[in-house]
Design a protein that fits this description.
Length: about 90
């Protein structure tokens, strides 16, 4: 299993710091687990392959392109800093 951990500062609260951990088996396209923490509380969830395919179709993107955008936003971290915005609600 592969995992990444990134620090994010959501545009909804730029002074706050959150930690985003993404875990996957083969690649993000087959689904992944996510853990978000503010250092005091944490929230977890899973995204299935079917959900990824459905979201890609809703956005009228092919799945491979959508998965690449997910990788850039959720896994790459500092390299994509400023290219993706996070809103916590």
């Amino acid at each position: 299993m592969e995992k990444t951990l990134n620090r994010i500062h959501p545009v909804s609260d730029p002074e706050a710091t959150y930690f985003l951990q993404v875990s996957w088996e083969k690649d993000l396209g087959t689904g992944f687990s996510i853990l978000l923490s503010d250092g005091q509380c944490s929230w977890t969830g899973t995204v299935s392959e079917a959900e990824i395919s459905r979201e890609a179709a809703d956005m009228e993107m092919n799945k491979e392109k959508y998965v690449e955008e997910l990788r850039k936003a959720l896994v790459t971290g500092e390299e994509s800093d400023g290219k993706y915005n996070f809103v916590i609600s």
